[in-house]
Amino acid sequence: MTNQSSTGADPTRVLVTGVRGKTGLALARLLAERPSIDVLGGSSNPDSVNIGGVRPIAFSWDDPAGWSAATDGVDAMYIVRPDRADAPDLIGALLPETPSRTRIVLLSEQDADYMGAAGWAPRAERAVRDSGHAWTILRPSWFMQVFTDPRFYRDQVAQGELPFSSGGARLAWIDARDIAAVAERALLDEGHAGQVYELTGPEALSLPQTVELLSAAAGHPVALRELTVDEVVDGTTGFERELFALTFERVRAGSFAAVTDSVERVTGRPARTLRAFLSDAGSPFGRAA
Ligand SMILES: NC(=O)c1ccc[n+]([C@@H]2O[C@H](COP(=O)([O-])OP(=O)(O)OC[C@H]3O[C@@H](n4cnc5c(N)ncnc54)[C@H](OP(=O)(O)O)[C@@H]3O)[C@@H](O)[C@H]2O)c1
């Protein structure tokens, strides 16, 4: 998709769903830095979206009546798959409401094929592939931002512990900003249609190696507490429980351990290390956090 400003044509309009989330926020910031991109930041809570150069717009998976207004005139759309059982159906219902020329980039997950064709993640991907839109699928490993997000491990790390179920497997943690950089290219540049990118950081780390880096960043020891999958899912129910259990089964099977060079191939620069990510993050693990 070419930048049309010099011709005086309308700017390229991009809808970023999940704009408050880890990859959506990073992507919206990148897009907003570009001239002549009209960035729409989709959220079920648009009043809470305050990102320079981004126009908040109501987008909720629970409100299909609002989808056509959100996607009106959109040249490219980033879809953050909702972690809910009906995600494949919702994505399949959203795309016919979206202009047929809209380029689609879907956020999926690494090694999604592990689940078999009837699995939840492959079905969500298939809704995009079968939509008739030009598409690109991103399959990232676990995000480094889980360590700094208060909805994930930030507060536990601040308190000196990382509860996790790795079974000794490694993870190729990826910086969500690298996922966003790939998404930006796929949304705006030619050559990415029909591509499935498995996206990882530059190295696969064991959990002992991971907590060593977290300890150095936090300035106090962070101990690994290895859990069983049953212990991890304790307290959850329904689909959330199923998804957690499957995700940690996959962690233990090494689904997130393979390292790829896709970030560098697409963006031209290597993926960030966990050490660099933690150094950029400042001091998110203060005891008061
Ligand atoms: N996390 C990982 O390591 C990882 C790895 C591989 C794949 N994935 C996949 O990536 C997708 C995104 O997952 P995620 O867990 O990383 O979620 P996320 O993108 O950080 O957040 C998802 C959504 O949660 C809502 N939200 C609710 N409260 C929020 C708050 N306080 N701050 C920010 N957002 C808030 C936002 O939507 P509203 O604004 O509409 O409320 C946001 O877009 C999922 O499909 C997941 O399976 C995640």
From TrEMBL:
Domain NmrA-like positions: 125-233
TM spans (from-to): none
InterPro entries: Ergot_Alk_Oxidoreductase, NAD(P)-bd_dom_sf, NmrA-like
Pfam (any one): NmrA
Domain of life, per lineage: Bacteria
Designated name of the protein: NmrA family protein
Species of origin: Micromonospora andamanensis
